[in-house]
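Notebook entry, cofactor series.
This is the third protein in the set we're modelling with a bound small molecule. For this one the ligand is magnesium ion. I'm keeping the input format identical across the series so the outputs can be compared line by line later. Sequence and SMILES below, as received.
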Amino acid sequence: MKWYQRLPVKLAILFYITFALTVISFAIISIWAIRENTHRSVRESLVFNANFWESYLKRESALVTPFSQEEHALSDFATHFGIRLSLIDSAGLVLFDSSVPQNQLKNLENHLSRPEIQQSLKDLFGENIRKSKSVDISLFYVAKHIPGTIYIKDLGNVSFIRVSYTLSSLNDYYKTYMIVILVVSILLLVGGIVIYKYLADRFAEPVLKMVNVARQITKGELQERIEVTSSDELGFLGKSINTMAEKLVEDIKKLKKLERVRSEFLANTSHELKTPIFTIQGFVETLLDGAIDDHEVNRNFLLKIHKNSIHLNNLVSDLIEISKIETGELKMNFEQVNLEDLIDDVFDSLVDKATERGIHLETDYQTSDMKTWADPVRLRQVFTNLIDNAIKYSDQGSVTVHAEKTRYNELKISVSDNGVGIPEEHLGRIFERFYRIDKHRSKDLGGTGLGLAIVKHILEAHHTKIKVVSKPGEGTTFSFTMIIKPVSSPELEMEDEE
Ligand SMILES: Nc1ncnc2c1ncn2[C@@H]1O[C@H](COP(=O)(O)OP(=O)(O)O)[C@@H](O)[C@H]1O
Ligand SMILES: [Mg+2]
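Returned structure with ligand:
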C-alpha cells in the first residue's frame, strides 16, 4: 500500500480539503463583505454630499453672490469633507472643480461620457470607481443629475454635481483587515494540518486496529478478537468481525468433528467387513486342508461360512443404504401412505421370526385415520428395523405398535417391547453407526449395528425425530410423530381458495 492510499492519510486529506475550502471561503467572503460595506458607507456619504451641495447651491444668496466669492467657500468645504467637488453643465463642460484652479478648467476633457454622468442621466444618481487620469489613485465617483439645472451667477447652469472620494485611505484600511484575515487564515490552515492529522489518526485508529485483527484472523489466528469500545457503526463492524471469527471457530470445530467421525466410521467399516471375511477365509482354508472330508465338522463349517456371508451381505446393503442417505443421493418420494396397511405388511414379514422367539405382534390404534405423508419404501424400512429390534432384543412378551393423534393433528407412533431394555448410559449412543450394546447378541441375530442410524436418517428426512425411553429388564419404547398432510406452500393454498 502506498502512503497516500492509507486510510488516515486519505481521511486527513479529505478533512483538510474541506476545512481549507471553508477557511478560504470565509476569508474571501469577509474581504468581500468589508469592501462592500465600506463602499456602501462611502456611497452613502457621497450621496449625502451631493444632496448637500445641491441645497447649498440652490439657496437664495447664491443667485446674487458673485462666484468669485463662492469659489473659496466651495473649495474649503470640499477639503473639509475630504472630497473633490465638480460642477458640470448639461454639455459635459466642467464649470468648477475643487482640485483644479478655475483658469485651468478649459484644459479638462469633456465629462459627459463619464460612466457616473451617463448613469445619473438615467437613474438621477450615478457612481463609478476608477483610477483618476491625473493621479494614480482610485477614486469613488458619485454624480447627481439636476434636470432643472441650478443657475450660478458668473458660472452658468449646473446640470451635474459630482463628488468623489479617494479610496487610497480606504485601501490602507482594507490592507489592515486583509492582513489580519490572511494571517488568521494562514494560521488556521497551518494549524489545521496538525489538528486534522491528529483527528484523522484518532478516527482511523480503531479501523486500523480492526484491519490488523482481521488480517490476523485471515491468517488463521482465529482466537484474535477486536476490542469493541464504541456503539457506532465501527463498533458494529468490530462485533461482526468477532462474531464471524467465532462462527469460523465453530465451523472448524464441526468440520474437525465430522472429519473424526468420518475416519472413525471408515476404520469401523473396514473392521466390520474384515471380521466376516477373515472368518469365512479361515473356515474355507480349514476345509481345504482336509476338514472337508471330516463328516463331523464339514457341515457345521459350511453353515458358519453361510452365516458369515449373510452377515457380510447385510453389512454391505446397510452401508450402501446409509451412504446413499448421507450423500443425499437418495431422494424421498412423498405420498399419502396408509400406515395400517404398511404395518400389516411389516408384521407379515416378521411374524415367523417373532413366533419363533415366542413374541406376539400387536397393534393399538387410538385413531381410525392412519393416513400419513411419507415415502412408503423408507417408512417401511423404519418399521422393519424398529420391530425387528424389538423382537431381537426381547425374550418373551409382545411388541406393540401404538398410534394416536396429537393435538397438532399429527400421528404419534410408537413401537414398544417388554425386552431387555437399554441401560441409560447407552441411550444416547444407540443411533450411532455400528453402536451395539451387546455385540455378540446383535451379530448372532444378524444385526449390523446400522439399523437405528438408518432409521434416524430416514425420519430426519421426514422432518421428524425419533425418541427412546427404556428401562433395563422392563422394555423399550421408540416413538416419533408423522404429519398427516403435506405442508402446502402459500401458492397452493391460494389456488385452493380459487
Ligand atoms: N428394542 C430394543 N431393545 C433393546 N436394545 C435395543 C433395541 N433396539 C436397539 N437396541 C440396541 O441398540 C443397538 C443398535 O441397534 P441397531 O442400530 O438396530 O443395530 P443392530 O440391530 O444391528 O444391533 C442394538 O445393538 C441394541 O443394543
Ligand atoms: Mg437393528
